[in-house]
Structures are given as structure tokens and as C-alpha cells.
Amino acid sequence: MLKTHQCGELRLEHAGQQVTLAGWVHRWRDHAGLVFLDLRDRSGIMQLKVDQASAPQAHALARDVRSEWVIQATGTVVARPAGMVNPDLPTGEVELEVSALTVLNRAKTPPFYINKDENVDETLRMRYRYLDLRRPSMQRNLILRHNVIRFIRNYLSDRGFIEIETPILFKTTPEGARDYLVPSRIHPGKFFALPQSPQQLKQLLMVAGYERYFQIARCFRDEDQRGDRQPEFTQLDLEMSFVEREDVMNLIEDMMIRIVEELTDLELVTRPFPRLSHDEVLRRFGTDKPDLRYGMEIVDLSDIAGASGFRVFADTVAAGNPVRAIAAPGCASYSRKQMDELAALAQSAGAKGLAWMAVEPGEEGPVRSPIAKYFSAEQLQAIVERVGAAPGDLILFAADTAPVVCAVLDTLRRTLASRLGLADPKKIAFCWIIDFPLFEWNADEQRWDPSHHLFTAPMWEDVALLDTDPGKARGQQYDLACNGYEIAGGSIRIHDRAIQEKIFGLIGLDVEDAKQRFGHMLEAFEYGTPPHGGIAPGIDRLVMLLAGEPNIREVIAFPKTQQAADLMAGAPSEVDPQQLAELHICIVDSPRG
Ligand code: ASP
Predict the structure, then answer these.
(1) Mind listing the pLDDT tens digit for each residue in 107-116?
(2) Gap between the Cα atoms of 322 and 302, Å rounded
(3) Model confidence over 129-167: pLDDT tens digits?
(4) Is 231 a pocket residue for ligand 1 (Cβ < 6 Å)?
(5) Which of 170, 175, 197 to mutate to test the pocket of ligand 1 (most atoms within 8 A of CB)?
(6) 173 lines ligand 1 (CB under 6 A)
């Protein structure tokens, strides 16, 4: 070994010991006859003192070194003189009096500071990711990620699960995104699809009798990028036989609570995790991934608004649509400009305008608002009471079709909560969403789309609805939401060929198509398939929330950019014509050039 100790482990108790350290020069200061070097390795930072008088050779070398050079230093651990102790550093009570120094490798000047927590341009960070990963915040995130995964492996192994790897080169396993395809050299004109999830394979493992499976699985989905998405991502994929919805939910809930408690300092605000029906969560929060760290719940005012003299509201309610509102605490004094910004935000989510009432008791009544004149004093009072607004609060309305009202109030609620500092990064709030509709109507294609995926079972009592009124059938799906993100989705599966075939039919897959794509599943269902179900929490999103980071790129070692590219290696890239020929691929210019 080129070192006897780690930089970050040295303490007063090591004083007097001779040690050898190796790492990167984090900082250096040259004071006439003394050079101070902060030496960094993965464990932390240790101060080296190189004295010209006692170690002239080492001192001469130390004067030459620069940031990020790799060096090895041997010397004696000593207590720092009184007044020189650094209480911010775990090793701050000691330093190394260097007797010998070796430069193991030099470094070019890095394109950004590694020793300062500065905002660095994201493109630069991605281009030099190996330097970015040297920064303490990235190290902390990747170590947390490792700890979360280790925890999960132990937790599940202790409960009878076994980890089984499934192939990456496979056949389409749809989860609602486009597939990444891999051309086959040996089978001209044929392609593998990278799994959007191991869904089919884990179900086949249940047919095979493994009963409890998990995998830290890489999944691939070719879809438009957002802050919390990547073309490839990691999920904890899990499947169990002979279980019902509650069994899977209880297992995951217990595991999540322990992860938060054992690996973080976050305050768990919802315990047990609330279980909200899909209807309820949309009504109260306008989204199926609500942030429960704060209130500002949506309240329905259709009855009052419909009876008012305000035409926009009355007409909306007469057409069978809702009028709903939220109360933003302390925002009654918003300026004209701030109100215009909120209106623009509401419009970006689909609203035609933004009606508001500021709760400021005055002579005319309990509120100040351009639309107050259309309401009786009792109606205004009833509105204020129903939304739970206090003096100083601002009531914001949405009147439209239910999906637009949900989108508008969800957007306003999230934006205001973040502006008002209500989304406390020290808190974590999970909730389950259950009782989803099994299908969503796809008006463009005139067919049903599965809300979750093809293999989710209907509620057993709703099976008959598949023939009569599929839109009313509920699925045995459960999603786990946390701080405004969906972090897991799962379901009890169909284990019966006839029901599975019926679902294929409803989503517009004809028998031949279904056979071609999923024949192996249908066939397997005929060989003694146990009732089974599972779930797949996203590891990247979970670690992002546990680390308090704003996007998943901060918890992935080598992520792609928002444009789905790797800037460091330059991927995707063109390939050799010879390689294309072997794969029987010929590039045709795109019609748009
Ligand atoms: N296959 C699903 C997904 O990847 C999860 C599951 O149903 O277990 O989202």
C-alpha cells in the first residue's frame, strides 16, 4: 500500500505516530520557510506542514506542487499549536510534520475549483465529470446512494428475497415510453429492445416459483427528458407471490421508514403513510404526486360559486365543471406585478385567467377583490371559511374542466409553497395513492390505455366491468409519492390468461399482435401461475430526495444531460461504416436534413 492511513481518520490520539498518506493537493500556502498543504483523499482532509529547516528536500518539492497534484507524504502526526486548531475539520486538532514527500503525478489546472463549493456551469461539470465527482457534495451523495442500496439489499435478503439478474438484451417490455433498440448482427433486420423495466421477467420468475425476487435494476426509456428523468435509471425491482396489495405496501412502507431513520436526519412527517384514493388526491391536491410537507389544500367551492352572480363561475358550474380554490398564506398584499406573474403561471397550466380574493376585512366585507361585487356578504364569508383563509391570505380560484382546475391549482400550490419556504428540505412526507382507474381513454387513438401497465390486475370485484364499462374499472395499482414526486409504482398482476387477453383487446392489441409480443407471457400463465404482485421504487429519485438535491443528476455518477447525451465521452456518437455494415444498417438522411 502507498499509504498507512486515510487523511480523514487522524485525530489527537494518533499524535506521535509516524504515518504515510497519499491523495490530492486540495490547497497550498507558502509561508517563507513553511509550506502548508491540505491533502485530500476520499475520507477527508489533513493538513501537512513542510518545514524548510527540518525537511529541506520535501520543502523544495512542496513549493512546486499545485492544486490536484497527487502526492505521498510521510511524517509524524502532531497536535496543532493552540490557536491553530480548526474546529470545522474533523482532523482540525492535528497536522502532519512531513519528513518525506513524493510527487506521484502532476495535474493540469482544473477547469473549475474543486476546493470551493461554487456554482459551476453544468456543461463544464458534465464534460469533466471525473473532476466534479471529486467535490465533497458529490462524494457525499454517492456514498449515501451506496448506503441506501446496501440497506435495501440487507433488508430484503433478511426477509427471504433473493436477488436475481435479468437480461438487458430482451424484447419490448413497455412502460409507456419508447424502446431503445439494439440491432442484431447475427439476425439481420432484427432488434433487441432494452427493458423499460424487468416487468415481464420478474413475473416469469414468479411463475418459476421464486416467490420473493428483487433486483437493483437498470431500466431504459427513450422519452423526453426532465429534471427527474434519465434515459437509463435504476430502480429497486421487486416481486412477490401469494400476496395482496397491503402486503407489498406494508413491506415498502416499513423499509422506507427505516431508510429515512437510519440513513438521514430528515424529519418523517407522515407516519403511517396516508393512503389516498386517486379521486381524493386529485380533489385535494390536483395531482397524483402531492407534496404533503405543507397544507394549502384545494377546496371545492362549486356550490357557492355556481349560485353567485359571477358569470364565469356560474357558467362553469352550469356546464358540470368545478370551481375550486386554494388560500396562499400571507399573500394578500401581493403587488400588481406579483399578481400578473401568478396569472401568467395559471395560464401556463391551462387557465384562461386567474380570479382572486384578498382577505382584508373592510367595510364592504371580508375580502378585497375585483369580483367581490358579484357575491353576497354571506357567500364571501362562506368562501373564506371553507378555504380556511385568515386575514392576510390570498384566495386563488380555478374554474374550468376538472383536469385543468387540477393542473392550475397544483401549479400554483407548488410554486407558492416553494416561494413561501413551506417545502422544508429537512422534511420528508410519503403517501400512498390507491384505487386508480385501470384505463385512461386515449381520444387520439380511440382506445383505452393502461393507467399503469399492461399487466396490472383490475380490482377483482371490477372484472365484470371490463365487458360492460371498462372506464369504471379500478386497477390494483399503488403508487408511492414523496415530496411531490412519484417514487414507486406497483400493482397486483393478472395471473390469468383470459383476463390478460381481454386487457390486450381493450388496449387495441389484436390477437396476433399480442401473441407476437407477449405470447411467452400468455403461455406461461397456463402453467400454474401464482397470484403475485410487486413494485419498483426509483433509486435515483429516492436518493435525490434523501440527499435534498434538486435533480437526479446529482446522485448519479455519470448521468446524461437534459438532451440525453454524455458530454464527457461524447455519446451518442457516429460509428464506423464497417460496424454499420455488419449490423445490416444503412443510415438514411432524415427528411428534415
Ligand atoms: N414495472 C413497473 C415500473 O417499472 C413497476 C411495477 O409494476 O412493479 O414502473
Answers:
(1) 999 999 888 8
(2) 5
(3) 999 999 999 999 999 999 999 999 999 999 999 999 999
(4) no
(5) 197
(6) no
